[in-house]
């Protein structure tokens, strides 16, 4: 029986108030030119079949457990959105191609044009979208992102500043961004959940033993009742989840 469904004796759970903003490249998917797909570490296995090939010849591979993870999020979270630093055409190719069965469940799909350009290097004080002090995850303004110059970051206030997205549940207390690139989250460190990078040419990161998204589902279930996600210690979250081999997804929602 589905969570919250009718009937007696079932596991009846309220949907969590938490919302997710999901990165694409390195988090949910990876890609390569279709002409070199035969060189992948898992070539010759079912995993070597791309989920989608673009008109430009980009083969898109979906991370192990990603589809189950997205189904879990659809039932567990108040709302789920997508944000990639890549261009709009790539975002559409991934969402409407490789992840097409989940496309209608996303509250929004942001691309690189929604990112904010910031200077790198120097400065003082603290920055964290929610104003957290360093002991709760604040980061120095001007965090060294690899030299001086400019970079682009994902500033989550662009998500919850829109009344329609606030109505869906996206607020600074409820929103978490799932990212493999911490530098994208320096404005909202307290809202960030970092995940290892999915790289189809890296072994064993590209293999079927990659259980990061399965672990993440269990972690999200464990903090489902938290009122303010910024005050949850999320660093090293994956070390707090112990999974038996072939462990199922957790029940969605708040017990």
UniProtKB/TrEMBL annotation:
Belongs to the TIM50 family. This is Mitochondrial import inner membrane translocase subunit TIM50. Essential component of the TIM23 complex, a complex that mediates the translocation of transit peptide-containing proteins across the mitochondrial inner membrane. Component of the TIM23 complex. Keywords: Mitochondrion, Protein transport, Transit peptide, Translocation, Transport. InterPro entries: FCP1_dom (IPR004274), HAD-like_sf (IPR036412), HAD_sf (IPR023214), TIM50 (IPR050365). It is a single-pass membrane protein. It is found in: Mitochondrion inner membrane. Gene3D superfamilies: HAD superfamily/HAD-like (3.40.50.1000). GO terms for cellular component: TIM23 mitochondrial import inner membrane translocase complex. Residues 13-223 form the FCP1 homology domain. One of its GO terms (biological process) is protein transport.
